[in-house]
């Protein structure tokens, strides 16, 4: 059932692509650039966030007023605040698209687990940063978030209360709360870049930016939204008028909405299960569908005798799986005798795609289950038939 | 451009009519059935239902498909190998550009085929005998239409000149004298 669901999700993903490709040339299909779009929104967030950071004071009494000050007094403050909020929403939307797309098209297969695992962490931290961001405003919504998070954490047996104190700096609303939240907003934002290094380290030429049209389009939408719907605070948080209703940003605060229907403990269990399952996805046994006959072609092997050290495969391997090492001995063929370098395949990075075979004009690489002579034999039978 | 032109757009939903008008052009073109070898990326168009047991296409028996793990896996020398061994045309089908499962494979094969076409030109083989097309898993109809178009175009090319002496497959190595060290099996004689 679940497999069938995934198969039909793949089908719909591809169908959507086909639809979009009808409208745009395929090189501009935004769904092919969800990673680049995430990076774009993250950059907008960092820049606008820096601006807000100059004005923000993380203290119980002043936080709300400084945010209001940014909105009302600082030139273009309202706009920048809007940009920060709406690009956060945009960020969440595109990383969810990126996540689902990579999931449904199985781009976690073979040794692609590293971008997947780092991606899951990016997703979790992005959500977390969003919530701490809403607390920083310190309006009634923020207060409600703190109360709800506190209750949810306290519901964890044994360590719950301790965790809550760790997060908020003590029971109840303390003076430490907002500095901590500020740290937990900015700190993980920096951490995202560490995770992104991990995300990219095995990708050659990651498409870090979308095509210029989509950069401009995204910027335009964010600007337009921040002009049309100013990002506003709710009334100030105060202990005397406890907040009632949660004004929801569906992208970040969905878990809090679900608290209406779930007990806090169940929510935490559910979240843990989802995250753990997400981390497990790339290790599920691959399933060979009927129409996808050729998988497992085997890790690429260098044929030492033929390698000339030309580096062509090193430049073309999309997963940085080929390194050039100083050659310990000359090769056998004429072209390989004067070589200085020898290609080496890092097995843990190889996704068995065979792109290096296509890159190599010296027949110095092969996929063990898909040899050149087999291909040539197939060509010959095809030509002779 | 090395491609076969853009995929058939608006009319693509309806199955292409068997009597394609392109077929009528050129005297005697329809009579000859070019032999075509196609390399098909395993993640691109699903071969299910369009291929017979022996690898030939159901609608186009003159076309044989060979499945490969990724379009980037193909060595251009294999395309040349096919041409020299009696195929009238060869093409590569990968996923839509930008959507390669292995990120860069189809972009790379596009560049490699483009280079190869220039090489073929120098060898006096019509570069139109090789092509690249890009279709996703479920775009079978469009794929078949594009292959038919390719086949028709190859059919209209004038008969190839006698096969040139074999060379090393890739242009990277300095061109060896023709009678130096021919690589691979000697080319079979062209069919009439
Ligand atoms: C801050 C958020 C993220 C950014 C900026 C980001 C960016 C990118 C970029 C630029 C690429 C390279 C795409 C290409 O060149 O084809 C990529 C690949 C990838 N991302 Fe992300 N990503 C983010 C979050 C995630 C998440 C949440 C997941 C899923 C759990 C994920 C999973 C992957 C995977 C599996 C790949 C490899 C795709 C392939 O090998 O074809 N990423 N990411
Ligand atoms: S098959 Fe070759 S190109 Fe593909 S990941 Fe492995 S080493 Fe890199």
Detail the topology: elements first, then pairings.
The complex is a heterodimer of chains A (385) and B (192).
Chain A: H1 2-23, H2 34-55, H3 63-72, H4 77-104, H5 113-136, H6 140-154, H7 160-168, H8 177-200, H9 212-228, H10 250-258, H11 264-280, E1 301-302, H12 312-316, E2 322-326, E3 341-345, H13 355-359, E4 365-366, H14 372-384
Antiparallel strand pairs in A: 1-4, 2-3
Chain B: E1 36-41, E2 63-68, H1 76-84, E3 89-94, H2 105-122, E4 130-134, H3 140-156
Parallel strand pairs in B: 1-2, 1-3, 3-4
Short description:
The complex is a heterodimer of chains A (385) and B (192). In chain A, α4 packs antiparallel against α5, α5 (113-136) packs antiparallel against α8 (177-200) and α6 packs antiparallel against α7 (160-168).
Describe the overall structure:
The complex is a heterodimer of chains A (385) and B (192). Chain A has 2 domains: 282 residues, Cytochrome Bc1 Complex, Chain C; 84 residues, Alpha-Beta Plaits (2-Layer Sandwich), CATH 3.30.70.20. Chain A is 57% helix and 4% strand. Chain A has 14 helices and 4 strands. In chain A, α5 runs antiparallel to α8. The model of chain A has no long low-confidence stretch (mean pLDDT 89). Chain B is globular, with a radius of gyration of 16 Å. The C terminus of chain B is likely disordered. Chain B is of the alpha/beta class and 192 residues long. Chain B has a 4-stranded parallel beta sheet, sandwiched between helices. Chain B has a domain of 125 residues: Rossmann fold (3-Layer(aba) Sandwich). At the A-B interface, α1, α13 and α14 of A face β2, α1 and α2 of B. The structure holds protoporphyrin IX containing FE and iron/sulfur cluster (SF4).
